[in-house]
Specification:
single chain; alpha+beta; Alpha-Beta Plaits; 4-stranded antiparallel β-sheet; 3 helices; globular
Length: about 100
């Protein structure tokens, strides 16, 4: 049986300059917030960057509520204070980009 996924449109309060470094730091912060078991339940992946502040994150369906809470709790990436806001969620990336506030 295939594991169902959900896609989340997340916006950062600050611009994201170095995308690869951002992904590494973001996964690290998620692991700290969720713990190892929670991280495995969410199984987060940053799929796509949209502009300089938004990105699409994929999460397992059973852990999507934990992913939304965890991104809201992250307030620091590297040495910068920041905040993350989940704008919308959907079962497909196409539907997510259509329903996201401000378009993509």
């Amino acid at each position: 049986m295939r594991i169902k996924k959900r896609y989340l449109m997340v916006e950062s309060a600050l611009p994201i300059p170095d995308r690869e470094e951002f992904k590494r730091q973001f996964y690290r912060e998620l692991l700290l917030v969720l713990g190892e078991l929670g991280y495995h339940k969410v199984n987060p992946r940053v799929i796509r960057f949209i502009g300089d502040r938004r990105f699409v994150m994929k999460a397992d369906l059973e852990g999507v509520s934990d992913a939304i809470r965890a991104t809201a709790l992250i307030n620091r990436i590297g040495e910068q204070n920041t905040a993350f806001y989940t704008l919308s969620s959907s079962g497909t990336i196409k539907a997510l980009t259509k329903t996201a506030p401000g378009g993509a």
